[in-house]
């Protein structure tokens, strides 16, 4: 006995609506060359039958899968989760599903995730490269038959477009703000300094300190609370302890704040603190934390919008392997003045 197929078919929709299967296909694909009356009628039939197009069959015919891949370091990081939320909203507006995978900045995990998404034939890809200089990643991406946008970190030596913030300028702004407060020994706490974003922030810190003829005090060992504790206590126990700390990402700022609180080191009286990237509790802590704020939602939104702009053009022209100049959209950061740097935040 043949098992009855409980899923309505395109042919059933056509029979019920009294039109041809070609007309139903046109309705499903946007309604081009279908009269408004017929379009409304067929859509009512589709809804009443509960018909859903067979996406696997559409893929085999070379049609879009209506899926977008997003590869980010972590969904737990507020910056990347905000980017993902914004990108998902744009994907939804374009009748597409966003598939999110995470890498923890591990190049091997990144390549594995990328290959899975390519095998599933996503229409396009948004990716935060674990290593902006990676030849292996570059080789896979430039040969991928889909439009690609990199987020937060550009991919070197390719024509792949990117959406980033001006990390260098933001770090200069942060460091100069501390210098303007009168701090002379400003330590920069960081980790994963090979990452494009952190490299640029360190470069901005160095530029601001050198311009002010002040010594650079860089510790690139911070990766968790214990390493932050060791770094800060070692600096404070030294002959010339810092009077301010510039931390290069939100997790490092949080670790630094926890260490200072645990050891009753007064902020900003003994050591000022200013971090790159805002986080949820930064404004409610005591003292509140001054930060360089990135437009995370705008980064995710603009990245997804650029990707769908490419999808709406000729696919060959949109392919990232095309011989065109790389397009980099650079967004500005913003200094949020709170108490930890010595500022009195404005009354709300």
Task: Compile the SSE list and pairings.
Elements: H1 10-17, H2 21-28, H3 36-49, H4 55-60, E1 67-72, H5 78-93, E2 97-102, H6 107-119, E3 124-127, H7 135-142, E4 148-151, E5 161-165, H8 167-180, E6 186-189, H9 196-211, E7 217-219, H10 225-236, E8 244-247, H11 250-262, E9 272-276, E10 290-293, H12 296-312, H13 315-318, E11 328-331, E12 334-336
Parallel strand pairs: 1-2, 1-3, 3-4, 4-5, 5-11, 6-7, 6-8, 8-9, 9-10
Antiparallel strand pairs: 10-12
Helix pairs in contact: 1-2, 1-3, 5-12, 8-9, 10-11
Number of helices: 13
Helix content: 40-55%
Q: What is the β-strand count?
A: 12
CATH level-4 homologous superfamily of the largest domain: Response regulator
SSE order, as H and E? HHHHEHEHEHEEHEHEHEHEEHHEE
Beta-strand portion reads: 5-15%
Radius of gyration (Å): 26 Å
Output the strand order for the largest sheet. Answer: 2-1-3-4-5-11
Q: Determine the structural class based on helices, strands and strand pairing.
A: alpha/beta
Question: In the residues, how many domains can be counted?
Answer: 3
Could you tell me the mean pLDDT? 89
Q: Give the distance, in angstroms, between the N- and C-terminal Cα atoms.
A: 73 Å
The low-confidence parts are 318-325
Keywords: DNA-binding, Transcription, Transcription regulation
Protein name: LacI family DNA-binding transcriptional regulator
Domain HTH lacI-type: 8-62
GO molecular function, one term: DNA binding
